[in-house]
Amino acid sequence: MLTWIETAGAALRPGAGWTEFLALFALVVASIVVIGLVTGAFFEIMNARHPERRIQIHRTNENKWGELKYAPGSIGVIALCFSGGLFAQGQGWALTPLPITWWSVPLTLAASVLLYDAWFYWLHRLLHWKPLYRFHALHHKSVAPTVWTNHHETLVEAILNQSFYFLIVFVIPIPWPVLVAEKIYDQISGMLGHAGYEHFASPMGRTPWPFASTVFHDQHHGYFRYNYAHSFSFWDRLMGTLHPRYDETVKRFETVTTPASGAVEPPASERPETR
Ligand SMILES: [Zn+2]
Ligand SMILES: [Zn+2]
Question: Which of 99, 113, 160, 256 sits a CA distance of 20 to 30 A from 205?
Answer without folding.
Answer: 160
